[in-house]
Amino acid sequence: xTIPAPIxxxxxxxxxxxxxxxxxxQPPRLYSADEEIYAQGERADRLYRVEFGAVRVYRLLADGRxxxxxxxxxxxxxxxxxxxVHHFFADAIGLTGLRLMPRARAxxxxxxxxESALRCLVRTQEHLLVVGRQNAVERIxxxxxxxxxxxxxxxxxxxxxxRTDIGDYLGLTIETVSRVFSRLRAQGIIKLVSLRTLxxxxxxxxxxxxx
Amino acid sequence: xTIPAPIxxxxxxxxxxxxxxxxxxQPPRLYSADEEIYAQGERADRLYRVEFGAVRVYRLLADGRxxxxxxxxxxxxxxxxxxxVHHFFADAIGLTGLRLMPRARAxxxxxxxxESALRCLVRTQEHLLVVGRQNAVERIxxxxxxxxxxxxxxxxxxxxxxRTDIGDYLGLTIETVSRVFSRLRAQGIIKLVSLRTLxxxxxxxxxxxxx
DNA sequence: CGAACGCTTGAGCAAATTCAAGTGCGGTGG
DNA sequence: CCACCGCACTTGAATTTGCTCAAGCGTTCG
Lengths: 211, 211
Prior knowledge:
homodimer, alpha+beta, four-stranded antiparallel sheet
């Protein structure tokens, strides 16, 4: 089969503006802890970039069960939707600063933004493997490895989110999260400097637990 | 805060070509049952549109556990990756025809393709809720509703995939899938015309089971 | 200083998995 | 055309994992 020539999208000079909208000197919009950024059913006409703090994107069942589909840390872009309406909720975990950027239709994306969306897709698909096929210990290990890497690969870092958030991200209850943390601590694999500050003592052991 | 003007990407005349590459008269490439379409680690330089048949996209753990992140039915586009390398496997479920389309970098997408990718993202995130927070009955019900809708909303339709595939999509074992099918059948909610042909007798009941 | 909230820990339980037989359908060959 | 074979699926029993319910701890904040 013959491969046709690549498809090329060419930008107008708006491109430069697009990049600037995120790096502009204007201050980010502030959100306090647990403040809603958007809700399911709302009009989806913006993208967001995390300046500082952390964000959870989630969906709810009628009876209140919650699944967090992603956390977003500084530098990351979120808010992608297939049509004009949000299918998810998003809110700030702690005090958070976001840069807002308008979006209209799908074609009106810069290459970097499309790339962000694709990274988000791949990450979500990878997360599905964790939630669908790994046990509690593997899920927590994978989570810790992921967060450590996303925070720059340091062995000590802060968990911006609560145990409840972690459970709702990994499809576990808060009690199971707590028990696994305790077990990893007992095995000398991690150390809880404080409730929300974690130190990875045996990175190799943690990685092998996450498969 | 002032909202900057929308970003607009303007296409060259290549745009028309892009649409044509999928609808061209040349025959689709054929894949036999279980034939690999791409593998993890391979170079990702194409997109695929299903002409007929069905495709599974999945990931494996070292010990062979598998998570299918998506099924793709006729009309759907798949093969999106964040960088130049595939993070997943894809293969044909039965005899399948695919139209191939080259892709290079993320910016080189038509609006329709970007839209496809975003739909894929939303669908994956929604699937995460099913796998992370719903029980076996709810998962199967949600799966059947989803497949029925994607096949045009008919009450009778074929399941292109095996029970093993369904289990690996929903994060369940094949035995649990089978037991739930039997239970739904005993309750008169579904009827198995044959092993792979299913009729939904009580669509309302099924939908309420899927939450 | 006290209350509230987030977290931890324990005991019992339920849901889904594992292991182990069977069953039946579809395909192949006599 | 029928019988047989193999594989996918079904069903059952025992086991395990994670959940529910409940109590206690400790930190933080008013």
